[in-house]
Amino acid sequence: MKTSLLPTIAHRLALLGYIVFALFPLFWLLKVSVTPNDLLYSEGVRMWPSRTTWEHYSFVLQHSAFPTFFKNSLIVSGSTAIIVTICASLSGYALSRFNFRAKYWIVALMLLTQMFPLVMLVAPIFKILTPLGLTNSLTGLIVVYTAFNVPFATFLMQSFFDGIPKDLEEAAMIDGATKFTAFREIILPLTLPGIAATLGFVFTAAWSELLFALMLINGNNAATFPVGLLTFVSKFSVDFGQMMAAGVLALIPAALFFLLIQRYLVQGLTAGAVKG
Amino acid sequence: MASIDIQNVKKAYGHVQVLHDVDLQIKDGEFVVLVGPSGCGKSTLLRMIAGLEGVTGGEMRIDGKRVNELHPKDRDIAMVFQSYALYPHMNVAGNMSYSLKLRKTAKEKIAAAVASAASKLGLDALLDRRPKALSGGQRQRVAMGRAIVRQPKAFLFDEPLSNLDARLREQMRAEIKKMHGDLKATSIYVTHDQIEAMTLADRIVAMHGGVVQQVGAPLELYDRPANLFVAGFIGSPGMNFLDAIYSNGNVTLKDGTVVALPAPLSLDDGARVTVGVRPEHVVMGGEGAGMAASVDLVEPTGFGIILHLSLHGLAFKVFTLDRAALSAGPMVHVSFPPQHLHVFDENGERCVSRQ
Ligand SMILES: Nc1ncnc2c1ncn2[C@@H]1O[C@H](COP(=O)(O)OP(=O)(O)OP(=O)(O)O)[C@@H](O)[C@H]1O
Ligand SMILES: [Mg+2]
User: Fold this and answer.
1) Which residues in chain B have their CB less than 8 angstroms from residue A175's CB?
2) Is residue B224 located within the same domain as residue B249?
3) pLDDT exceeds cutoff 80 at A222
4) pTM passes above 0.90
């Protein structure tokens, strides 16, 4: 139809505008990462350098501690994402389905933990972790990240469980399932979008966390990549090319991760459960 | 199959009591229909039988065994939900076979049971489909199929047909009746639909405000409603009620009309009563044949005609098969055959004949 053409075009243009706006920093990252050092300051502002190079990448991969940072980040973010998602699934389900006496207070307490600026907590947490031998260790980071992400992830999962009709698990129980079987075989598969969203959220949060990584870790062995990025900043100069190359590399796992879970992020898995 | 005994069962949510001393004995193979206005506790009672709600007081027995504390999975009861509650991530066959899988039934047996249930319900061609690719009627059938694949002790239905269109509902109603004839399964069926209740039930349980008002065969509730609530609830269009005074085997209506009852009632003379008469029992006549009433509205239903009248300023309905009523003038005359009058005392209880 003719009449609907203009709104469609306007809609697409608006989307295009937004995408350009959102992706421009990433493009810039990529651009700088392939710009040879001698051209970085000499060419002025250009959309693409006249000559490109991979030298920053090869330097980062071969001559810096970056592969270690990278591996550490993967371990920390992956473990945190998995542990948090498991905890949040269970607690989110409990908050969504059960009525228990302390529920109100537990929810209030969890909200409370979200209210403090993290900076305030660095010192106490350091004090707690030191005697436990958890400073300067990946395990310590995982524990801290898990603790900070569980409350929000729980609320996230709860909202997904709330969206699943209670009838379904009741039907399963009448069909002969225990509460846990009903949870595992009926509810959990339907919450995959929620689980994917939670995994993604927690993974990226842990992947880019800097404050605690900086405070709890010293030395390169247990550093994660945000900390590692800072090693490119020296007292006298910033090595932008290498830093950007490292940044591009750091994007890869996050991008892969979302590619992996994106098919679960689409909603609508529960369609057809009820009359509709 | 099993009998279900409900003894003095109570249910309260906090301080709100929603079921008061419900007493009901359901015999093996019986088809019992629960009716009542919205919020009267039908679903709650059904869910308590299934084990989905706890019992606040009283005792629930299945086949003589106390089940108050028994988990739903151990009660061996099948339930068809109003929302159907199909598992969206399983296809039709998966939905129907889930209960058998949980019971670790052999694969061949499952396949046979699913196939036979599917052919009974005309679902053979749909076994591979997911629920979202089914129509409302087909989903309803799958929900039924899920219940009948195993031989449960009893079937519970919570308004299973209320989301279907009229024609489909009629067809499914007949199928449920036929199925009950075949399986002879103890069934408890909740509905809002008069016709479903009347046609399906061996016995109807009429509930109001969490209290059982009357239990009996459909025609018993229709012919001899125990109180004003049942009288008004059963039958469509609903019964007409008029205030009257009883004396000496007669009732005197407000306008002075005296109707002689077939038998004297065990009431004091001068007692205030409510007289009920069903729209289909009212007789219309010409001038001088009863009370004059003005016609407010004429509703042809195709099968018959519903006349909305004003009698002594009160709304009053008449149902007739006579097409002549379509052209009824501004005034008609109505009279009540005494044998079709229902008399209720001041407390709304049905008055019995004096022995
Ligand atoms: N979890 C609950 N907490 C408090 N009150 C409840 C709860 N569940 C149900 N009720 C109340 O119990 C009463 C009975 O509810 P129920 O669902 O059994 O009604 P119903 O007869 O099935 O009605 P309908 O015909 O509309 O389905 C209602 O008044 C309802 O408000
Ligand atoms: Mg209900």
Assistant:
1) 73, 98-99, 102, 146
2) no
3) yes
4) no
